[in-house]
């Protein structure tokens, strides 16, 4: 009898330990795979450890690296997409049906500020450069969109105004509000002064039509071009870009990318 009790106790303890281990493993896997979008900027510097975009706008041999890098990055978006028939034009905020093999087109040739023909403004004396923002292709993730009552106080005013204005004009369900918003700003007070006006194209974020990100070869990651209209020359400017949705936690480092700009 005593022996049977002991065995029962041992089995009981073993089961508890096993349950703890299994729970721990499940939690660890969940955390490790917790999807959120990584913001990525292009052109990336030649040194992979660096996040500094540094060039002299009147030295063509130096700016060619950045221009070529953007040319390469934008190649998959060039029109027409050869024989790929599953790339279609999507309406604002409307992804293709999940069971279709369609993906949404991304058009860059009519983005007047940030195109190859303008050297992405890397050769302009006062204006530029243009950088591009995109997201990584991995996570199957969909933004939880903000509306006027859930919008955080710290979101930039122009985004707040844009969301409220569109909600009043077109209603809370409007597809114009299904956007993963992005913003770029100087990090410190001096950076905020030096960065100058920032122009986003084709809009203030990534259209909801591109979500969820799918692992299809033809899937084109959405783009936002960011044109620095008149950043101060000859100083280093710390810049932080953020993606905004309810399910992105900036305080945990999600949806933020940092780089520095220095134009001689
Ligand atoms: C930028 O390049 C031009 C032409 O090569 C040169 O004259 C000028 O001194 C350079 N500026 C700086 C700050 O290096
Ligand atoms: C905003 O979204 C929340 C949930 O995300 C919802 O409960 C609320 O009704 C929405 N507000 C408006 C004005 O639609």
From TrEMBL:
The protein's matches in Pfam families, at most eight in alphabetical order, are given as: Na_K-ATPase
**What would you give as a GO molecular function for this chain, any one?**
ATPase activator activity
* InterPro entries attached to this UniProt entry: Na/K_ATPase_sub_beta, Na/K_ATPase_sub_beta_sf
Q: Does the keyword Transmembrane helix apply?
A: yes
**What is one Gene Ontology biological process annotated in the Swiss-Prot or TrEMBL record?**
potassium ion import across plasma membrane
**Which compartment or compartments is the protein found in?**
Membrane
Keyword annotations: Membrane, Signal-anchor, Transmembrane, Transmembrane helix
- Keyword set includes Cell membrane: no
One cellular component term from this protein's GO annotations in UniProt: sodium:potassium-exchanging ATPase complex
Which segments cross the bilayer?
6-29
Membrane topology per record: Single-pass type II membrane protein
Would you say which domain of life the source belongs to? Eukaryota
Q: Which family does it belong to?
A: Belongs to the X(+)/potassium ATPases subunit beta family.
Record's protein name: Uncharacterized protein
Q: Which organism is it from?
A: Ignelater luminosus
């Amino acid at each position: 009898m005593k022996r049977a009790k002991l065995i029962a106790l041992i089995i009981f303890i073993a089961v508890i330990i096993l349950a703890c281990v299994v729970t721990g493993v499940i939690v660890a896997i969940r955390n490790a795979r917790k999807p959120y979008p990584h913001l990525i900027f292009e052109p990336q510097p030649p040194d992979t450890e660096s996040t500094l975009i540094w060039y002299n706008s009147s030295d063509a041999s130096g700016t060619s690296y950045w221009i070529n890098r953007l040319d390469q990055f934008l190649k998959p978006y060039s029109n027409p997409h050869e024989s790929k028939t599953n790339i279609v034009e999507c309406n604002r905020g409307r992804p293709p049906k999940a069971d279709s093999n369609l993906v949404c087109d991304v058009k860059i040739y009519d983005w007047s500020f940030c195109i190859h023909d303008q050297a992405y403004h890397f050769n302009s004396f006062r204006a530029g450069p243009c950088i591009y923002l995109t997201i990584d292709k991995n996570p199957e993730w969909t933004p939880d969109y903000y509306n006027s009552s859930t919008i955080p106080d710290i979101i930039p005013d122009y985004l707040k105004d844009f969301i409220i204005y569109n909600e009043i004009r077109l209603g809370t369900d409007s597809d114009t509000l299904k956007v993963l918003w992005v913003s770029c700003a100087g990090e410190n007070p001096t950076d905020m002064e030096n960065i100058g006006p920032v122009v986003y194209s084709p809009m203030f974020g990534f259209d909801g039509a591109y979500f969820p990100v799918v692992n299809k070869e033809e899937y084109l990651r959405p783009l936002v071009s960011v044109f620095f209209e008149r950043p101060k020359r000859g100083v280093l400017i710390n810049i932080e870009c953020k993606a905004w949705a309810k399910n992105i936690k900036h305080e945990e480092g999600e949806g933020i990318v940092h780089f520095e700009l220095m134009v001689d």
